[in-house]
Design brief:
The chain is mainly alpha-helical. It has three domains: 8-105, no CATH class; 121-245, no CATH class; 248-373, no CATH class. It is 59% helix and 1% strand. The chain contains 20 helices and two strands. The protein has helices at 8-18, 26-34, 59-71, 78-89, 106-118, 121-131, 136-150, 160-168, 186-194, 196-199, 201-211, 218-229, 238-245, 248-253, 256-279, 287-298, 302-308, 315-324, 328-343, 357-373, and strands spanning 44-45, 52-53. It has a two-stranded antiparallel ribbon. The longest helix is centred in the C-terminal third of the chain and has 24 residues, at 256-279. It is globular and about 75 Å long.
């Protein structure tokens, strides 16, 4: 083969992808290799002094090139494509027998995560707050002004139980079901950078309540933090807040296996969160689903998951969620829910309906059609058999 000429193996990769209507060029393949994103074809030695040869095109090369072609486009930073590729590789194949997406180089994934997290709004706010420490009210005002420019209004998923009750009753979803605004979370950045004493118990109570953890209200948090501030209750270790505020450092230090495990946790928790949200959209309830929601409620974690997880995340959202799932707390929650799922895996099996997932889907579609047409849910359903719905 002449020097500089395309290798037969790369030409075969181009042809294979073209048969799938995926357009790549040999120069793109080489560019991706130089960037450390695409492996080279495996070669077999011909013996001493006789060089080596490619016996067959490596399927990993083909599928890796296909993944890059799916996620890269003109003008887009490659690091965002790498994160999308990493997220896709953690999902099971959509169709039975489909080829599993290979893993991207984990070093490139780590670099992409660090790059995104260092540019995230939360990281920028914390860094600005730290730089403003000691500047008094002027520094605090500057922080809140920056937050006003960087953050927009945030509304989480409505409480699914309240949403479901309102839909079943034909009423509007109550305003109380909506999540808190994101501005309250700026108090945490201020506490990390300026110090908790500069922010005050009242503002911090608002911030902690916005997470919704443990079901505690603003008043509950204010009472506990106020008591600690006055020396009337257990002291608060604000060093923990500083420790957990840094997502960039742990990503740099974590092992390759821990990054992959964090993705497993994120994918799993996203599924459990999605089930919880779908309960509010009149998805037929089952004992297995109810047990999973109960476990999440026991941990007081639905509002927290609502902050951490996006149903269709952008690469930047995926990076922040993945960074959060490096925390043992989320790993423990994932394990708890997986144990519950193993005890009762019949998530999509309505009691008394022997058609299983098929009947489940048909029941849900019927319920949504009745809602859209203004037909009472009970109409058209007998008391027994596949048409029966629970919850």
């Amino acid at each position: 083969m002449a020097r500089g000429a395309p290798s037969p193996a790369d030409l075969q990769v181009v042809r294979e992808l073209a048969s799938r209507e995926v357009v790549v060029t040999v120069s793109q393949l080489e560019s991706w290799r130089r960037a450390g994103l695409l492996p080279r074809h495996r070669r077999r030695g011909l013996g001493r002094g006789r060089g080596s040869v490619v016996d067959a095109v490596d399927p990993v090369v083909v599928e890796s090139a296909a993944a890059l072609a799916r996620h890269l486009r003109q003008g887009r930073d490659r690091r965002l494509a790498v994160l999308e590729w990493f997220a896709e590789a953690g999902m099971p194949p959509v169709q039975p027998g489909a080829v599993q997406v290979p893993e991207p180089p984990i070093g490139a994934v780590r670099q992409a995560l660090v790059w995104v997290l260092e540019r995230s709004v939360s990281h920028r706010l914390v860094e600005f707050a730290r730089s403003a420490a000691g500047a008094g009210e002027e520094g605090q005002d500057a922080l809140y002004a920056l937050a006003g420019r960087l953050t927009g209004p945030y509304r989480g998923a409505g409480n699914p139980a309240l949403v479901r009750a309102a839909l079943e009753a034909g009423e509007d979803v109550p305003v109380e079901a909506e999540g808190p605004g994101s501005r309250s979370m700026v108090h945490l950045a201020a506490a990390i950078g300026l110090g908790a004493q500069e922010v005050g118990a009242e503002a911090l109570a608002e911030a902690f309540a916005a997470f919704g953890m443990f079901g505690l209200t603003v008043e509950d948090w204010a009472q506990m933090l106020g008591a600690a501030e006055r020396g009337e209750g257990p002291p608060v270790d604000w060093g923990l807040l500083q420790q957990h505020a840094d997502m960039v450092g742990p990503v740099k230090l974590t092992s390759d296996e821990e990054l992959v495990r964090a993705r497993t946790v994120l994918v799993g928790l996203s599924g459990f969160y999605g089930l919880y949200v779908m309960h509010g959209l009149l998805m037929p309830d089952t004992p297995a689903q109810a047990a999973l929601r109960q476990r999440i409620d026991e941990w007081g974690m639905f509002p927290v998951l609502d902050h951490v997880i996006a149903i269709s995340p952008s690469p930047r959202q995926f990076a922040e969620s993945l960074g959060a799932c490096l925390e043992p707390f989320f790993d423990n929650l994932y394990e708890t829910l997986m144990e519950q799922l193993a005890q009762d895996p019949a998530i999509f099996h309505i009691p008394g309906d022997e058609t299983g997932a098929v009947g489940f889907g048909e029941t849900w579609i019927l319920t949504l059609r009745e809602l859209a047409n203004g037909v009472p849910e009970a109409d058209g359903c007998g008391d027994d058999g596949p048409g029966e719905r629970s919850g």
